[in-house]
Amino acid sequence: MSSKEAVKNRLVLGLPKGSLQEATFAMMQKAGFKVSLGSRSYLPNVDDPEIDARLIRAQEISRYVELGMLDAGITGFDWIQENGSDVHEVADLIYAKQGMRPVRWVLAVHNDSTIQSVRDLEGKRIATEAVGLTKRYLAKHGVQAEVEFSWGATEVKVPELVDAIVELTETGSSLRANNLRIVDVVLQSTTKFIVNHKAWQDPWKKHKVEQIAMLLQGALAAESRVLLKMNAPEDKVAAVSKLLPALHAPTINHLSAAGWVAIESVVEERVVRDLIPQLKRAGAEGIIELPLNKVIR
Question: 110-122: per-residue pLDDT in tens?
């Protein structure tokens, strides 16, 4: 009998296939869950016998969670909105394909277009993968336009095939490369950890989902932080500690050498290059910078 067969309780978890797949697998790894793909790519293996994973397009995950075919899943807020899915949002996981930032669905047109605002779309044709989002956006502004589903390569359809597009972007580089400009932001989206309402009422599944969410958020929090460790004379502790923007306060321990202490603190990685020289000038020695896997608040 395999370890999974011996486990009574299991959580069926949907992981996003496609653009979010690599980033999600990496985040799961940092959270403590190793995900690997075998010959059946639909069924990835997670080294936790209580998790049965399914690899599904992010566009579909919220529907399957709502229907109870998946207990929980990781998908974009945009697809939850597009599908109109009634699910419980457990955690906001701010990461995307290219970095730790929200993504945007934007209304874009060719640089030479006369369209300057959503009002100018009256009677025009728009291509997008997010048909529902786009129709609701137009209705909100009282604009009637033809919205068609795009199967891909949406950027190249302007202006020969359509007047405008509603497309997902992180940096805007693909739009600029296709000579397009952004007219408006339709929706800003982050990655969400969601769960089926019935599963959320199950004590074991709720506990398991909360455990996974805590570890995932801890892994994401660690992405932008490092651990600094250093030694300092006791008479320099106040000056050194004042420079350290710790989560709470720096950890200080006395060393065996009289008159010296060890100091450690979790800090934002972006400040380290400026912070280390300041710490050195304040009296810190033996400064070490260490990467982190998880930061649990």
Answer: 999 999 999 999 9
